Amino acid sequence: MKIEAVDLFYLAMPTIRNVGDGSQDALLVRVAAGPWVGWGECETSPLVSIANWVCPMSHSACRPVRDAVLGQSLETPADIARINQHVRDLGLDIAQTDHTLSGIDIALWDLLGKQRGEPVYRLLGDKQAYPKTPYASQLFGDDAGQTLAKARAMREEGYAAVKFGWGPFGRGSVAEDREHVAAAREGLGQEVGLMVDAGTVWGEDVAQAAARLAMLDAFDVTWLEEPFVSGALASYQALVQHGSRVRMAAGEGAHNFHMARHLIDHGGIGYVQIDTGRIGGITPARRVAEYADARGVTFVNHTFTTHLALSASLQPYAGMQAHTFCEYPVEASELARRLTRTAMTRDANGQLHVPDAPGLGIEPDLAVIKAYLVPVEIRVGGATLYRSSEP
Amino acid sequence: MKIEAVDLFYLAMPTIRNVGDGSQDALLVRVAAGPWVGWGECETSPLVSIANWVCPMSHSACRPVRDAVLGQSLETPADIARINQHVRDLGLDIAQTDHTLSGIDIALWDLLGKQRGEPVYRLLGDKQAYPKTPYASQLFGDDAGQTLAKARAMREEGYAAVKFGWGPFGRGSVAEDREHVAAAREGLGQEVGLMVDAGTVWGEDVAQAAARLAMLDAFDVTWLEEPFVSGALASYQALVQHGSRVRMAAGEGAHNFHMARHLIDHGGIGYVQIDTGRIGGITPARRVAEYADARGVTFVNHTFTTHLALSASLQPYAGMQAHTFCEYPVEASELARRLTRTAMTRDANGQLHVPDAPGLGIEPDLAVIKAYLVPVEIRVGGATLYRSSEP
Questions:
Q1: Domains of chain B, with CATH numbers?
Q2: Do B19 and A60 touch (CB under 8 A)?
């Protein structure tokens, strides 16, 4: 097969709110090769990645993603690895390349899985997929009362663990943060796991994070996620040295294998959280999963959007039984909830299973794509360089 | 002053060749505040950064760069630092943000310097600028004969050091690479310094790089630049362990302070090479210079394009006497050579001086901008989101 066509679909809710909800828009990728079609999703700014797909060449290491994808041969997983590397070589000097590549790599795995009649995790070499324990992932309430109500609702939904993040957390005093975490714990009770996501709010400021450790310990928080930006390895390491029981989690900001490895090698994290829509797809995510497993770090997906993205983010570690948690979006936008024709729901034991179906096993609904499509046209030097396709 | 207007100018040669010459296009930035205008340059894919400037918000940490810049107050260097951080906060989840920010940060320093009647290095806290020793930076020839001729020409031009990079180097056998390095050394004679830039050709493959170390030692090469991609810290560290005399140089791929710091802390490099057009501007470049200086690592600029970019890349370490080398582009395109009304030329001793003039001390020629301007129009959802300004 040759990769004959790639289409990018920029989808968005009619109104985008200035909150930390990454499901308000989406960049879907459709790849066609021979009689097959694969789907992927980039966790990116859609317009920036569309520009990255078509941008004119600046020099030999600053080329558009499409130059490295269209016309490539696709027969085996090794071809996907080759294309992944080729995109990075040609796009070395364009920072956006990794985000744009992500949805394409995912779509290639989906396509190859469909062609072979195998789930992606099997193509990755795993014989069996193990169920994951989903944690409900949501934003903190605007005040502690809202956080309490959200926690109670998730407990009633039967989740074994719940994560709260972003919103007001870390932006005010330790006492204010404590109110939110106390409310979360009160609403969840003692049996439900609780994680806290600081959303990089402290930048690289160790003191701000350290001031919250005792409080997080007191409420038996499993992990503190992204106290710092992804690159602040020394800050992560310094915080770990405080000897709190709460482990550090990070990795969603990793754009490639190396950035995730740095957090493991030099940041002292206990959980590495990888978004296949950002790290360059399933190919590097799998490499991180294997690296983490070998070093006693727990791999977890990062997913806050659609169930297409969710299936893609679970495939790299579906076959790794020891890595049990998975992030499960429970506050996704109407767009994200409606996008796929099937959803991944919990079984009677509250466990989540990757679809036992070829590829990702999740298909988008073309009518929904049409309903939320944001048309884009880019003209450069007087000529049309890009115009959105019809779904 | 308030930042009232920012214009981006995409300039390009009529033909872009598929070679490692990054001067074939440019993204110039003009910032206006009160009666003042500042200029900067991004080392980026121009179209991708233009899209990043205007892209619709996806969520609170995925916003266009302009949202964090327009209307901001600009009175002091601390304001520039605040704006720099604000851009990163709002653009956290857009990988391209750092590249786009770079030219804006540079233009802010230029503007503030002009308003205060001071060169940028003084605003950074340095009383005096020290002359730098420029090394001529150019690509390897297509064959060893061409490399020999290029080396001879640079020796005749009186350069104290010359760097060859990219082209065929590292893509064939060790013997072929040896021919090129031998030719370079023959053309330069024994007195002229020689550096080699592998342009990340070996990815993370230590063996490929290690196989060249003895040869590089034999021809007295000062540094081996970018044997690996920026993130391959373990590969850098492993190569350093081979104990060659040749030092490792890297850093041009750093998009922020942290990435450069990682190469110093965990990569064992001897030279850190920072492009102010990529790392987010003069603000983070200065921080790298101070960090490197405190750890015995030599700071060097990375510049392959215009003299506007050259002045910007020298300001962060102009006042640091111990860091003497500077990269000096000698193969820039006609566009890059013609763009500025003045050039930074060597003095009678072959030394280079940052301009003793307000801001960067280098002004672009509006007529040249007009001549090379590539108009861009971006339409999203049926409305025009961006259209190139007139210079």
A1: 3-119+365-387 (3.30.390.10), 123-339 (3.20.20.120)
A2: yes
